[in-house]
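**User:**
My hope is that you can spare some time for a protein that puzzles me. This is the protein in question:
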Amino acid sequence: MNLLIHVSEEPRRITAVSFPRDLMIPIPECVDADGDLRSGMTKQPLNTAYTDGGLNCVVKTISELTGQEIQFAASVTFGGVIEITNAIGGVEVCLANPIQDDHTGLDLAAGNHTIEGIEALQFLRTRHGVGDGSDLGRIGNQQQYMSSLARKMISGETLGNIPVMLKLATTGVKNLEPSQSLADPMKIVQIALAVKDVPFQDIVFLQYPNVTDYDDPNKVIPDDEAATAMWDAINANAQLQITHVNTENDGVVVTDPAPVATDPAATPDPTQTVVALPDSIKGNSAAQQTCSNGNVRE
């Protein structure tokens, strides 16, 4: 999962943009963690930036693609996912249909489940078990997990509890490959305190807009027009309205498009600018309830 999180000035909003691992883009010349210079590439899958040059090269690649300045960066190992989900007591996810995925070993019935440990890792990694079996469907499923995580952290007042956050941040740093600017647990706590009061509808998860690659139908390339509209809205600090209607090919279905009732600030502020994103941009806000669009694949 490649994820860029944008935190705005006041009024505070959080936008998490997921990038497909098979997004075909230029990989710029960059310096890896060992100080070695890596040559640029004209058109390669985004995942190549990490396998070839590590975290530094992913940061430079995403920054050049989006035009966004990236202040903090980290990568999480599989083991780190397990430790972090255990530390927060698991995350509740919803399945509209069962998931049986022999590739990851995930086997969950329809309904609500609290997952942690290896099961959380299987859920985040499953691709064949949701939607059309693509990485794009997997992103939607991962965003359901992240939405539920955001609601748990805010509703449970975890983000406002400094001792608890410091413990979680310390666990996180031990299981991350952080940039130097993010290696201090207190920096993570400071970021958490800055976002603890963000309303659910202003925590938005988006998939970077893309279209099928004309050179390879199994890959995708950026939809530059839709991406420009998305970044213009994010940079203007507008409230984002998702207009995409999920289909059976998507990784999740929206089961409750209305704001979550437990969010005290769920009613949109009429004084704020609302921007309807192009319908090609998939995603959801933390104020919406989504469920995995599971299937059975061997």
